[in-house]
Request: fold
Amino acid sequence: MVYSDELVLATHNQGKVREIIPYLGAFFPRITCAADHDIADIAETEKTFQGNAQLKAEHVAKKTNRIALADDSGFCVRALNGFPGVYSARWAQSDIGERDFSLAMNKVYDKVKESDDHACYFISVLALAFPDDRETMFFEGRVGGYISWPPKGDKGFGYDPIFRPDGYDMTFAEMEPEDKQKISHRTQALNGLIAYLNNG
Ligand code: IMP
Reply:
């Protein structure tokens, strides 16, 4: 069921684009991304996932005059009051400005190793923004699990090598990508969006 002619993904991350297109192709014959419209990345200045997703989606909807979708996601550790959370990507920033997730995973483990509580979750919040006066819609997905140390597996990205989802005895990085995708936070958020589009 076609929902609208075009959807603009408010991201420059080709990994996210590749992951989202198969889910939404049936609703939007044309799916483009911010770079296709010469829109630069905007800073994630909010303190919540919802706030950052809203900021990105509304900015792109306004600039392109089209429906836009943004995703903000992160890794939240209970013993760290939800950190790194919205700062998940920033915890991986090295002194020379490169992204280093082994640095980020070590930072997390150093802070929780003395604690008995290793519970954590991944969260994804999607924001769908409209070029007219319709209100921005939000869809959230979470997957809970435990921090597993040392890091294991090379199939995933980000914090996957230290995340063992509830009910599994392997990390996200040891799982086949299609198995991770069946239970992932992003898939759950996308399922909420699909239910909305089917009803709209
Ligand atoms: P952003 O949504 O682009 O701001 O970045 C989210 C950050 O959260 C990523 O850089 C990763 O560090 C982390 N993250 C989000 N989803 C996942 C996942 O599925 N696996 C591993 N790390 C993730």
Observations:
- The beta strands are 6-9, 30-33, 67-77, 84-85, 119-129, 137-147, 163-165.
- The chain has one domain: 6-199.
- The chain is about 30% helix and 25% strand.
- The two ends are 10 Å apart (CA to CA).
